[in-house]
Structure formats: structure tokens, C-alpha cells
Design a protein that fits this description.
The chain has two domains: about 140 residues, Jelly Rolls, CATH 2.60.120; about 45 residues. About 45% of the residues lie in helices and about 25% in strands. The strands form two sheets. It has a four-stranded antiparallel beta sheet with strand order 1-8-3-6. Strand 4 and strand 5 form a beta hairpin. Helix 1 crosses helix 2, helix 4 crosses helix 5 and helix 7 packs across helix 8.
């Protein structure tokens, strides 16, 4: 909880009492490796702060003549907020899945509790805005990367963003994320050594 509390403490003008009030709305959860946190077709009820670990966002691509395939479109790691934010905001079912890559410790806040914090204080609104802005920037950077960078550049950018986790994320998920086959990713990794 210390990492989350430090984020609140860094907000200028926020008292220790107010910071603790906010942080105490969060619940600590430990998810084992490969835990499905949110299944496609369900509504996201939580905003998460990742204390330790990494979470993967993916869709199940279904084709009538081929087996279903998971397409990874995002990774979120420790010290970051995450959520199926579109579902969280709209209160409509999510079109994708959210799953842990490794054992992951999160602090989560329920949608209703967050709404109360928004109404109660400017700090709640500030953190909500910062979380939304960070998720938007990450999404935009991902889209631009898919349009402008080679697969090798996308891999290097991922390795730079997640140096601690790049060896722990299964090859098939990294390959899916950068839009290539696991075999092509193996070749890229060999060339970089």
C-alpha cells in the first residue's frame, strides 16, 4: 500500500488524513499467475493500482475455419493504474479479457467508492483524470507504434518499457502484442543478441 500512498502524498496540498482516507477505500488483492480478472462480456467494476506484477489485456479472435486465437493489445505493470476503462466508465460489458501474467498484487477500488471520492474531493477527480489521461496516452502510443514502427522497434520499445518483465512474459503474448508470429519474434531476439 506504500506505493499507492506515496502517489497520494505527492499531491500538493493534500493532508495525511485525506491521503489515508482515499487509500483506505482500496482493497488489497493477490491474484495468482494466469488469473482471469475480467472476462469479455462482463462489466468492469474496479480501478486497479498494480503494486507488483503485470496484467495483460487481450481479445479472443474467432474465425470460422481456424481455432480461436488470443490477441494481446496491452500490458500494464507495477506502479500503474489499470482497468477495462471503457467498460468501467460506460458500465457496459467489456469486449476483451484482462488476465495476470504472473502473480500480481493490486489495490482495487470499486466503481461506487471511486464515484464517492469524485464527489467528495477535488483529489478524487484529479486522480481520476490522471488515470484516464495515462490510459489514453498509452493507447495512443500503441496505435502510433503499430502504424509507424517495425516489429523489431515495437519489441525494443516493449523491452524498454518493461525491462524487469520482458523475460517473464511468454513469447506468444509478446509476439501477439507486436503483431508477429512467435517464430518471427525468436528471429528478432536472436539478431539482437
Amino acid at each position: 500500500m506504500e506505493k499507492l500512498l506515496n502517489i497520494y502524498k505527492s499531491i500538493e496540498g493534500l493532508s495525511q488524513e485525506e491521503a489515508l482516507y482515499h487509500v483506505n477505500k482500496f482493497e488489497r488483492i493477490t491474484f495468482p499467475k494466469k488469473t482471469l480478472i475480467l472476462k469479455e462480456g462482463t462489466v468492469e467494476d474496479y480501478l486497479y493500482f498494480i503494486d507488483k506484477g503485470i496484467i495483460r489485456f487481450f481479445v479472443n479472435k474467432v474465425h470460422p475455419t481456424e481455432p480461436s486465437k488470443e490477441i494481446t493489445f496491452s500490458f500494464i505493470a507495477e506502479n500503474m493504474f489499470c482497468s477495462a476503462y471503457d467498460s468501467f466508465i460506460t458500465r457496459k460489458p467489456c469486449a476483451y479479457n484482462v488476465k495476470t501474467v504472473q502473480e500480481t498484487i493490486v489495490y482495487r477500488i470499486h466503481h461506487d467508492d471511486l464515484q464517492e471520492l469524485y464527489e467528495r474531493s477535488k483529489v478524487g477527480n484529479y486522480l481520476g483524470r490522471i488515470s484516464a489521461e495515462n490510459l489514453y496516452v498509452k493507447k495512443t502510443q500503441r496505435e502510433i507504434s503499430l502504424l509507424m514502427h517495425t516489429a523489431e522497434e515495437r519489441y525494443l520499445n516493449l523491452a524498454k518499457a518493461y525491462p524487469k518483465f520482458i523475460q517473464e512474459i511468454p513469447l506468444k503474448h509478446i509476439a501477439s502484442y507486436i503483431g508477429i508470429t512467435p517464430q518471427a519474434l525468436s528471429r528478432i531476439r536472436k539478431q539482437l543478441l
